[in-house]
Every structure is written in C-alpha cells, then in structure tokens.
Amino acid sequence: MSNFKLKKGVNLSLAGAIADTTVATASPKRFAIVPDDFTGIIPRLDVKEGDKVLAGDALFHDKNHPQIKITSPVSGTVETIERGERRKILSIVITPDSENQFKVFNTNDAKELLLESGLWAAMRQRPYDIVPDPEVTPRDIFVTAFDSAPLAASMSIQLAGKEAYLQKGVDALAKMTAGKVHVGCAPDAELSLKGCEVNTFAGPHPAGNAGVQLANVKPVNKGEVVWTLDAVAVARFGELIATKKLPVETIVAVVGENVTTPKLVKSTNEAAIASLTDGNIADAAASRIISGNVLTGVKVAANGYLRFPYRQITVIPEVKDDAEFMGWASLSPKKFSLYRSFTCRLFGAKKPFSFDSKLNGGERAIIMSGEYDRMLPMDIYAEFLIKAIIAFDIDKMEQLGIYEVAPEDFALAEFADTSKLPLQHIVREGLDKLRKEMN
Predict the structure, then answer these.
(1) Are residues 288 and 257 in the same domain?
(2) How far apart are CA 289 and CA 299, in angstroms?
(3) Contact 218/203 with Cβ under 8 angstroms?
(4) Is residue 341 in some structural domain?
(5) Is residue 281 a part of any domain in this protein?
(6) Average pLDDT estimate for 49-60
(7) What pLDDT was estimated at residue 348?
(8) Alpha-carbon torsion 141, 146, 147, 153, what sign?
(9) What is the pLDDT of residues 154-194, one digit of tens each?
(10) Is residue 388 within 8 Å of 397, Cβ to Cβ?
C-alpha cells in the first residue's frame, strides 16, 4: 500500500448537503437511455418502438465493435426512439411493466458477461476517455473507491453489504489485465481486498478522480492503454458474475440548495428525474437541475432522466439576469472566491456557500496565470496543453500529456478559470479529433 497526499485542488462547500442517510424508495414510470452518454460508441439499434424487452436485453450495439452492447435497465416496452438531425438517436424511452423480469446470461466467461450485459460501458479507456476496446489488453486497471466531487454521497453507502461482490469483481478484472488492479481509497476507508494494490489518497477534490489517482501512481504513456472505473461498477461486475442477471439498483443522492430536503433515493439506473425529486424542489421555475455534480454533470429538464453513469441529482438556483452590482469587485462576504484578496476569505464567511448558475463573466483571451495547475494534481502543464489542443498541435499535445487526461480532470480548473473557457468541451473535442487522426 502507498499513501499519496495531494495538495492541489479545492473542496467546494455547497449548500444542500445530505444530513440524513436514510434511504427512501422511488418507483419511476419511465426510463431513458441516451447513446451520447457512452463516449466512443456509434450506436446501431437492436429494437424498434413497441418491442418488449427484459432487463438486460440489448437496445443497441457499437457499429465498430458489435460485441459491445447497451442494455435495458428494466423490463417493459420501448415507448419512443427519439431522433435528431440526420436521424441521430437521441434517446430510447422505456415504459416498465408491473413485474421487472431479467434476462439470464448463459455464460461463465466474465468478459463476455460484461459485454453482453452492457456493464462493459461502465469502464473508460485512457487514452481518449472512451468505452474500452475489448480487443485490447490494458496495461493496468484503476478503480476509485471514493467520490470527492461537491455534495457527492459516500460510496460506502452504495457498497454496503456488497463486499463479497466487490472482491469477485476485482478478481475478474485482474484476469483482464497484463498488469495490476489498483484501488484508490480515502485515508479512512475500511476496505479489505485481495489480488489488487490498494493506495490511499488524501487531499481536496479531484483526489477521488480515477484519472488523478492513475497519474500519481503510474501515468499513461504513448502506446499504453489503461482502464478506469469506480468501485460501485466493480461490485456490480461481481454481482453479475454471481447471479447471471444485470444489477440495476442504485442509490441516488438528491442534493443542492434548491432541494427542500436533500436525501438518498433507491431507484434504478436511467430513471425519470421527476420520480426522484417528487415535489422536493423548492422553486422549480427558478432551478437548474443537473444530472451529476455541479462540475461534470449534465443540465436536464424537469421531465428529463438520470443520465449514465451518474448517481447524483443536484439542483441549484437558475439565474437569468446576470447583471450584478459591482460584479467581481463586490465586497460582500457571501461572494465566493478562491483567492484571499476577497472579503469572504479575509473575514471567514459562513459556509457552505450559495452557488448559482451565473458564469460571472464572458469568454476572453486565455490568461497564463497558473490557475489550471493549482486545480490539477497531475504532472502536466495544463495551460500549455489546452493551448496545444486549441491549435491541434499533435506533437505538443503528446508531449504535454494528452493521453493521460479526460474532460473531468479539467472540471475544477474550468470552475476557477478567469478566462471562462469551456475546458471540458475543449479537451473532449481534442481527444475525439486526435483519436480520429490516429485511427
């Protein structure tokens, strides 16, 4: 075991955290699978509107790797296949039946089980941050066992009572890599796992990101492939191997300043947002609903769905009028800043802070101030990498560590960015263009 102490980054203390860990139960009436959530997959439909499906039946597969399938989280009827421009598949909406029936997978091969069940898509491959190529053996596999994102619920809640499944999942992953399975834990974690290397990471967010842990243990070099995932997905792998049925139950954290009572809700993946919030939003008309956390999540409508792979719904104030007296020069102690020159840092304003959807400025020329580096505990020159991506200078991108990063690694830097650049979007576009160029 190795212990890592990360100093870069920051923990954002938002209003609306969970105080009571009692778990409520929801019964969603609709579910939706969004192909865009599975980066790297080109979807080809396996169902049509009106088809009956079981939980675990394939909805679509990848054009380039047909063995990668995305499956239904429930049994029921395919209600709608929503399409956009050029007939792009936007979502597949399923209405559940009264009895949730499961497909039973008739194979003992762990890799084949993951591919057939759709759980394969819970992993990400570096480079490119895509669903892994099943024909490539990874150098190592990195598992994060804690979530350091704002308002995230403890991963131990999801893993309670599933320790045996977690071990079985680790054993299965160990057979898929030529190297090791590395598990990253918080310093106070109580995990007893065999067949893997357990490391602890102390420090602020993004210490819980699998990519940050990977970069500090054994970075990805050109020509190497590494897989990343979280411990909840590993436990689901183990449960699938043990039961031969797709595990779909999840516990969702409904949090944020505009949530009346922040709470945990037991439900199913890709459920309707309305069934999870259920009148628990204080001012729906003036709220922004985010599937995921405030840094990496996806903005969704009140009638939208929990997007994959998130297990969190965050609701914050939506501000349409961005005008503000004095703006950045405000002396109010309620105005948050990362810098000590502001009143909130000088006089110690009460936390947690009230964050809303304001951008607090517009896009401007990139300012080389070292801001990104202070938010990213990885051995890369983040600002220079962003400039190389914008210019699409492949040689410099490779030299500066493009193969190590994913968009989520830049989420905190995007929050702190004085230039207000969409860093995650820039990194995502850069990775996609690079993959297309290399292939």
Answers:
(1) yes
(2) 6
(3) no
(4) no
(5) yes
(6) 98
(7) 52
(8) positive
(9) 999 999 999 999 999 999 999 999 999 999 999 988 888 99
(10) yes
pTM of the model: 0.94
Same domain (yes/no): 67, 187: no
311 and 424 in a single domain? The answer is no
Angle between helices 110-117 and 231-243 (to 10 degrees): 100
pLDDT tens-digit readout, 242-283: 999 999 999 999 999 999 999 999 999 999 999 999 889 988
Confirm whether 87 is domain-assigned: yes
Q: What is d(CA 136, CA 395) in angstroms, rounded to the nearest whole number? A: 24
Nearby residues of 424 by Cβ (< 8 Å), 6 or more positions away: 296, 407, 408, 410, 411, 414
Name beta bridge partners: 160: none
Query: Do 92 and 13 fall within a single domain?
Result: no
Q: In this model, does residue 367 exceed pLDDT 70?
A: yes
Q: Give the pLDDT band (50/70/90) at residue 324.
A: low
pLDDT band at 359 (very low <50, low <70, confident <90, very high): confident
Going by C-beta distance under 8 Å and a sequence separation of 6 or more, which residues neighbour residue 182? 140, 141, 142, 143, 196, 197, 198, 199, 213, 214, 217, 218
Closest CA to 314 of 291, 287, 280: 291
Contacts of 188-193 spanning 24+ positions with Cβ under 8 A: 189/145, 189/146, 189/156, 191/145, 191/166, 192/163, 193/166, 193/167
Cα separation, 321 vs 327, in Å, equals 13
- Please check whether residue 378 lies inside any domain of the structure: yes
Enclosing domain of residue 398: 359-438
Q: Which residues pair with 315 in a beta bridge?
A: 289
What's the pLDDT at 336? 76
Residue in this structure with the two tokens 């599937």, named with its chain if needed: 291
Which of 73, 96, 119 finishes a domain? 96
Is there a single domain that holds both residue 135 and residue 246?
yes
372 contacts: CB under 8 Å, gap ≥ 6: 382, 383, 386, 410, 413, 416, 417, 423
Helix (H/G/I), strand (E/B), else coil: 121: helix
Here the CATH number for the domain that contains residue 79 is 2.40.50
Tokens 């948050």 — which residue? 336
Count the residues in the chain. Answer: 439
pLDDT-based confidence at residue 353 (cuts at 50, 70, 90): confident
Instruction: Return the residue matching tokens 């929801």.
Output: 26
Does residue 15 contact residue 149 with C-beta atoms inside 8 Å? no
Q: Is the pLDDT of residue 323 over 70?
A: no
Sign of CA dihedral 312, 150, 70, 44: positive
CA distance 309 to 291: 9
